[in-house]
Specification:
The protein is built from 23 helices and no strands. The two termini are 27 Å apart. Helix 6 (56-77) runs antiparallel to helix 22 and helix 19 (302-313) packs antiparallel against helix 20. The protein is mostly helical. The longest helix is centred in the last third of the chain and has 28 residues, at 351-378.
Length: 414
Amino acid sequence: RSLTGSVETVGLPIYLKSNANWLSAGALLTFLSSFGQTFFISVFAGALRADFGLSHGEWGGIYTLGTALSAIIMVWAGGLSDLYRVRALASAVLYGLAAACFLMALNPWPLALVGVVFLLRFFGQGMTSHIAVVAMARWFTATRGRALSIATLGFAVGEAILPLVFVSLMTVFDWRVLWVVAGLICLAGIPALIRLLRRERTPQSMSSSGSSVGMSQRNWTRREAIGHPLFWFMVPTLLGPAAFGTAFFFHQVHFAQIKGWTHLQLVALFPLYTLVAIAAMIASGWALDRWGTGRLIPFLQLPIVVAFLVFATTATPSGAMVGFVFMALTTGANSTLPAAFWAEFYGTGHIGAIKATAAAVMVLGSAIGPGITGMLIDAGVGLEQQFVWIAFYFLGSSALAWIGVRRARRDLAI
């Protein structure tokens, strides 16, 4: 079975059937990463602040510190995906994620939340999603975009289902019980993952015999990639969605309150957001296989500019719906384009280590966003005013990405 065969050559049904186990494993991992993602953790923000007596700024500070620690560890731990099989490494990570969920359910101390958030973010948002996208980028070459768009459907399913389900369950069950349920779901995913990956290529064999090259027709090491200007031109693009997309969902309870809506009214819009994000994922996967990430990534964040301007000005849930549509266009494409970007420009020989550094930047962004916005809320700067500033940030990051990619593409065989 070819992991790199073209969809156009073999036909989509045959392609999906031939690669079903690998694609399903990726989708399972991205779904399970939900329990360490902000959109899930923030569902419990009101209960956590009430039980532990935290202000918006204090809860944001705890979240920032725990997430920043996970970003630091990700720089080292993410490189393990170059050394170990996915089924072994991901199984160990899922055990860690389950333990973090159980600790959230049992923890009685406010200070210990830093450690709990660190574990949730490191094992969930960090390692589980990192392993999934690195595996897709390495296992698939000619159809990397399609593979990523299919595997990352797990993110979209988690965003659509879990907030709505768990917000509804919180009206019946204590929030701590629901974290036990989350841990049990993570544990149930381990045997399913092992079964899907009974036949798996080793990272070493992929790196030596099946790797694809990047700029200058070679595989770049992590040190070389960090020393290249393109990496730094891309840093604002990496930080933006992680920082401010995370901040939006982190403050979802507060956002609903200042708009005069119920929390359930807001999360009821998430399925629409997810449907549009899925469409954007699939479309971006097809587009990057056809045109490459270099032509697409400078335009990645323009829709989210519109989204934050809408969120800043709308007064109704129907207006927020428009914002979610534009936000989903960027979010969906962001699930595929950056992951493929590193493989396209720097090769797949050391993709785990390079992607780990990029993931650390994104995790750091997700640490910065809630902390800064939380402190500004406490200082009297409203979310709506902040959203206007955030929109201008995305305009600037798009301009920098365009400059960096334009300079680098002359070294890339197109």
